[in-house]
Amino acid sequence: MTLRSKLLLAQAPTVLAVIAVGVLASVTNGKLARSSELILKDNYRSVLAAQRMKEAIERVDSAALFLVAGEEAAGLRQAEQYVPLFERELKAQEGNITEVGEQQATTTLRARWDLYRRRLGTFTPLATEVERRRAYFAELQPAFLAVKDGADVILAINQDAMLRKSERARRMADRLDAATIAAATAACLLGLLSSLVLTTRLLRPLGILRQAARRLGEGDSQARARVSGRDEIAEVAGEFNTMADRLAQYRQSSLGELIAAQQQSQAAIDSLPDPVLIFDAERHLVAVNHAAEQNLRVTLDTEADDPLAPAPPEVRATVDRLAAQMLAGRGAYQPRGLEDALRTAAAGQEVFLLPRATPVLSEKGGVIGAAILLQDVTRLMRFDELKSNLVATVAHEFRTPLTSLRMALHLCLEQAVGPITEKQADLLFAARQDTERLQQIVDDLLDLSRIQSGHMELNRRAVDAATLARDAVKAFAATAEARGIDLRVELMPSLGEVVADPERIALAFDNLIGNAIKYTPAGGRVTVSAESHDHAVRFAIQDTGPGVPPEHRQAIFERFFRMPGATEPGAGLGLYIAKEIVDAHGGRIGVDGEPGQGSTFWLELPVESA
């Protein structure tokens, strides 16, 4: 198995864990959505029909009172309007029998309504006011009250059913939440453990090879790298051992054996599938492998002053920088991750090269050259892109059921479907807060996907810097007041205008100010200031929270990073999104401060003249 395949295999458990959690979350949301639909389908129409029947029978009773009062035209007109309405809603109720006892209640209501209509039919032709008054109080009013009571029974049955189903849905949601959390935790732990085991096994041969190289550099001619397998590392280890054997022979042999050893070394780097460039102490290119010649068009068989000239500009710049770093004695260069990969073109296709550099040391430990490896990580980048697309897809699919859930909670809290108790209101309010936090996470994931896919479009224009700061603070005034935090604005005069997309920059401000308020204790202070700074406007958000330790000041702007011990909810994406937005504007972002003395997050945007 090749090294590239092993690297992909090491990432597979984590990806499978993410897929499993996504599938479970989708199933969970589907069940909750079906529970809500069942309540609306079975009971809401009956509740609506009962309410409309009560209103209609009251209007018909008012029409009878008009007749008693001598207003015959108005009474007959109102009766003709609302008798058909009651009949239509009663038929709708008869077609929507879903609960125990509802059939009997509906049958009783039908009988009472038929009786009422017959009495109304005998009541209407009565000629005198005395006869109508006697007939109304003796026959029509009791029948009216009976019909109204029958509608109340149907209304109560369906409202009780809605409450029971809501409670059952809540219990189901609690069970599904617990199952989702347990499954997600288990999947993540299993994925991380599997990835850790595979990565450790993958890196063990490199450690052996590194140790053997160090011993050989220190003068131990018997040092060998004992690595088994058939991947590139094993091939390099084999070639390294061959080189060490040749070197040992050279120390006891003639010049011809020295040349043979050099050829073996060249064969070792030629066996690598990724470009390798080797420089001497004068930064002259002294060796390249076949991959460098084919992919970068770099060759030593040329009369040009610069053998790197045919290489892409971004490759030349990176190689020059790393060679200078190695020869300056700054130690080996290891990339932080795939984000350090170069995007370039090779053989007519877009490729990603991850640079690595190691100094070549003499027997006495001095730097006599530099070896630079440009690892082709195109497949890994595609794999990372696929993972990001998966996250974006899951987040997008969350939006519709999450919106329905938020709407349902809002309707319940507003008592649109019936009264609720104080305890039920507290539970529903807590659930609504959780859905709002989940909505923020989904929005952050969607913003992340747009940033990573390069679809974040900027509508730049000249914007007043002071207005940007004031609008950003205004959006958090109520939140700061509710948390007991003093939110201030301190702006230097004559800030001028900055070139920015107001909506995108507002999102960056929201993340920075929101974090400052979130991590500032009650009674603290958050100050938003702005001042001109070196052809730019620097905005600063200063808080009196716990501060950021120096070792985490770079990491907090990375994706999904969470401060150790952090208790506030979140996905660890806000600062990363803010940094990407500011970088897209050609600005800068950073953080200052000391632990225990608060933090000052700042961002700089170019002024209009820039």
Task: Produce a short descriptive summary.
This protein is of the alpha+beta class. It has helices spanning 3-68, 72-94, 102-123, 129-217, 232-250, 255-270, 290-296, 313-327, 378-413, 422-453, 465-474, 477-482, 502-519, 574-584, and strands at residues 276-280, 285-288, 342-346, 349-361, 367-376, 461-464, 486-491, 497-500, 525-532, 536-543, 588-592, 600-606. α1 packs antiparallel against α2 (72-94) and α11 crosses α13.
Termini distance? Answer: 53 Å
Quaternary organisation: single chain
Strand order of the largest sheet: 2-1-5-4-3
Strand content: 5-15%
Q: How are helices and strands ordered from N to C?
A: HHHHHHEEHHEEEHHEHHEEHEEHEE
Helix tally? Answer: 14
Reported for the largest beta sheet, the result is: 5 strands, antiparallel
- What general outline do the C-alpha atoms trace? elongated
Compute the CA-based radius of gyration: 38 Å
Derived structural class: alpha+beta
What's the average pLDDT? 79
Number of strands: 12
Unreliable segments (pLDDT under 50, ≥5 consecutive)?
Answer: none
Helix content: 55-70%
Describe it for me?
Helices cover 61% and strands 13% of the residues. The longest helix is centred in the N-terminal third of the chain and has 89 residues, at 129-217. The chain is elongated, with a radius of gyration of 38 Å. The strands form three sheets. Strands 2-1-5-4-3 form a five-stranded antiparallel β-sheet, sandwiched between helices. Strands 7-9-10-12-11 form a five-stranded mixed β-sheet. The protein has a two-stranded antiparallel ribbon with strand order 6-8. The protein contains 14 helices and twelve strands. The chain has helices at 3-68, 72-94, 102-123, 129-217, 232-250, 255-270, 290-296, 313-327, 378-413, 422-453, 465-474, 477-482, 502-519, 574-584; strands spanning 276-280, 285-288, 342-346, 349-361, 367-376, 461-464, 486-491, 497-500, 525-532, 536-543, 588-592, 600-606. Strand 11 (588-592) and strand 12 (600-606) form a beta hairpin.
